[in-house]
Structures
1.
Amino acid sequence: MSKILDDVSRTFSEFLLIPQLTKQEHIPRHVSLRSPVAKFKEDSQPRLSLNIPIVSAAMQAIACPRLAIALAMHGGISTIHCSQSPQSQAEMIRTTKKYKAGFVKSSANISYSGNLGEVRRIVAQTGRKTVAVTADGSSNGLLQGLIFAGDIWPGEPDGKPVSELMVSMDKIKTATVGISLDKAIILLRACNQKCIPIVYENGHLDSLVFRRDAFSLNEFPLQMLDGEGSLMVSAAINTHDYIERVPCLLHEKVDFIFFDSSDGYSEFQKRGFDWIRKQYGPDIIIGGGNVVSAEGFNYLVRECDADFVKVGIGGGSICITREQKGIGRGQASALIDVVNARNKYLSETGIYIPICSDGGLANDTQIIIALAMGADFVMMGRYFASLEESASIKYNIRGKTYKAYWGEGSSRAKHWQRYSDSLQEKNITQFEEGVDAYVPYYGWLHEVLPITIAKLKSTMVSCGAITLQTFSKEAVMTTISQQTFIEGGTSNVLLKDEP
Ligand code: IMP
């Protein structure tokens, strides 16, 4: 006879945290949200930690270098989806890593033989006020001078040559490629220019460091930087083409990879782990998942050597896996079971395995509950889909702005598979596990994420914790009744504005 578990499958919205003593030193400013990503020995430092416990989902509707850059600047990490060729996935990693905060590729360029009319057109098209003059008019050509649009007198004729408009190189202080941002900014201050061109030894232009960016960089103290000063980014892999895909990703120095699967409790995943470990050894950070039980966790950790484990089946906002296949588990129950298995493993071996709670987080409160329950970090799709920086486009529907958001298991997402015959497995296309939808547009990441972080810190303080580790260790929670849930929102009042 089949086995029926005693516990009911629960979701995050069924729990509330009970406040604990807030001591004087418990203030949001003192809260650290650092959280490990890869397994580590209890008495040593984690190999990789996030500065905020948030990663974006590996989905076509979301992942792109623009989001990856924005999230890494704020202390999280984006994951780049594998629903594309290994080459284009690697290209996204490269673009993200190439972005050097503060080092701006010149997008307004003109050749030395140009004139003011062309400068005016370039300024209008690009919105830039600094135009680089290079020998061939390209962004990486031999630098010959700079034109500052704000310094051009009105009424100058369009035919005026560039040579008479530009500030020539003998009057411009430059720095050589390889200089750190800190040093470039010190130089910029010393020479008091509007920007400092970063050039190769042969005089070709690499980038520009602007005064205004030097100021704004102070706003990103939590940036996730690798050993070479590039932003960190992660990539999803699958159990079909890792032999081709993993080398491409590692070539671009991806910071960690993980198997992206709705059901990771499988020998296919073990085969993938074994191959990668054999080829590249234990240093590569590889996550496994998704699982929803202690058995799944133990398999991925004890048999497959996973560095972290991703939890969640069927909870995603665009997910219909439970409906279509009858598999899954309430995200809170799944997480509790896996966290208990993790803690047991820790007490047996002294090795801590980080856990990622993936999908189904409908609001900021649920992020907080997931972390209180022992998730080390959360992965979100809908949250990021609704932001300006996500990969999908905006729509105006009846006066309101939305962004497209579709599941990786939807037929829309599966179109990419046309590129590879080897992935045209019959069962992949017979039914869908995700839907094609819209989400309300919420704005830019830098407007939305700080609010989430502020709420998290405020709750931690109420629960007497200033680190995520103490937060989950000391958290006291209660399950809530239907009526408590209803009263959690506003009650018996007529709202003036929609929340
Ligand atoms: P969300 O944050 O609730 O939108 O969930 C995002 C998560 O849903 C992803 O990180 C995936 O684990 C999962 N997911 C993505 N696409 C699908 C799908 O088509 N079906 C089921 N789950 C999906």
2.
Amino acid sequence: MSIIVKNVSKVYGKQYALNQVSFEVNKGEIVGFLGPNGAGKSTMMKIITSYLPPTSGDVSVCGLDIHNDSLALRKKIGYLSESNPFYPDMYVREFLEFIAGIHHLKNRKEAVEEVIAMTKLEIEQHKKIGALSRGYRQRVGLAQALIHNPEVLILDEPTTGLDPNQLVEIRELIKKCGKSKTVLLSTHIMQEVEAMCDRVIIINFGEIVMNEKIKELKDIAHEMGIKDKKQNSEQIDLEQLFQTLTRSKK
Ligand code: ADP
Ligand code: MG
């Protein structure tokens, strides 16, 4: 098991951002972490990457524990945070060399070349990060997450704000990475999960409301009385499934 989350709660004042959340991610799986804004996705990811302590509960990544092995655990993870802490005045290549230095990589030049090629940043590598389009900034974000060849990728809304072409490219890139790594990615778009993931975990108000393989979704939607999008269509109405599961508490 790559990621084990056990009874994690995070309380801000009186609000439970996460309430007794438990799930696991197998090695090599691509799992979509889905939920409306404010559901607790980013909070969970910050806890898994050991940037934020939980109020209670345990997390381990590749057998390393967030409480006791925080530094070693971070080395196993490539993390794209929701607000990329980028330096707009740094040049793409300069920034990636800087990140390679932080990781104390031995072959820094090669590592930078490799991620630039992998994320197709060749043409933009000599531009300042602040001058890039959002799609290319996301690629820089992915490049910095991949540079130390981590076993696990935690990607917080990697596709939000991209245009349709950029979306397809980033999805392909994530799928490619998923072949050799464990990936947990967050989004609030159900179709996104269907396009990229093996499994979906849906979170609402800090609690998990679904944890299922994508190929099971059709049967589950039918059981819940959700009809196919069009008659005789294989497509289930994923939007409706998501909305049914994440309705506001009244
Ligand atoms: P998501 O990423 O799913 O949109 P978040 O994890 O960012 O959700 O937030 C979950 C909930 O926790 C939200 O209600 C948010 O307002 C709250 N929250 C997040 N960070 C803080 C904080 N530092 N202080 C207080 N409340 C917070
Ligand atoms: Mg978020």
